[in-house]
Amino acid sequence: MDFGDADADFTMCDLINPVPKRTRKLFSVMADYANFYRAASQVFEKTSAEYDEARRAVEDGQEQIRLAEQRKNTLRSERDMRKRKENALLAEYNSKHTILTELIKESKTNEDKRDAVFKAIKDRKEERAKLLEEIKSLQSEIEHLKKAIVDSPEELRAEADSLRANIKRLQDDCKAERQRISDNAECMKIIENVSKVLAERFTELEKLGDFQVQISLLEQDESRVKSLLNEATRRRQQTADETVRFAASVEEEVKKYERAREIYSSRLQELKTRKEQLTK
């Protein structure tokens, strides 16, 4: 009798009223099945436990990969943000540098204008001194003429008219000189304002130096982020290798299970053959 037969006729009668020969065959089959079950159950339980451990390890590896991907994306977004900030600071630095260059050129032009104004003021002062000396000489000449003897009233009148004309001309020159001096004072005020603007621009230049320091700090942060990204990539590769090894071990256990099934099938076939031989 064999449980693998399609026409097995095992009934309750075999338990209530057993036949020795039939019972011996039945017990033989049950003993073979019990022996196989003890051996196969140990292999199956061991394989199942190892498979569960491998599956948990694979799940842990996948979770680590997901976390590493998340960290990598976070680091990449932070790097992009810092890169954008760095580009913005660099653009601002370039614009400030352009403004500073223009201001330096303008300051040089203003210095040239200031030197020209100072030179003009100096020339006007020299001309004024000469005019004052000329006025003094004319006044002394007038005093001398007043003391002189008048021979002809017409000649005296003509000389007086010429002196009046000279005095008027000198007065006009003095007025023009005063106007030039006031214009030069306005130029000096403009130069002082330009100097203040230049001082403010140099202060902005110092701030740009601080921006350069911040850019260097950002570059250091970027290098640290790159190192962290490389470390995350290495860990991801290590996790992938472990996953491959776990998969290989699982496949090996499956193969062992298949071999156990084949052994069981071959043993069952041998038992059938022996049964047929015994029945004959």
TrEMBL record:
Domain called Kinetochore protein Nuf2 N-terminal: residue spans: 9-51
Keywords: Cell cycle, Cell division, Centromere, Chromosome, Coiled coil, Mitosis
A single GO BP: cell division
Record localization: Chromosome, Centromere
Coiled-coil regions listed in the entry: 44-78, 121-180, 247-274
Lineage top rank: taxon: Eukaryota
GO cellular component assignments: Ndc80 complex
A Pfam family it matches: Nuf2
Family: Belongs to the NUF2 family.
Protein name: Kinetochore protein Nuf2 N-terminal domain-containing protein
Species: Ancylostoma duodenale
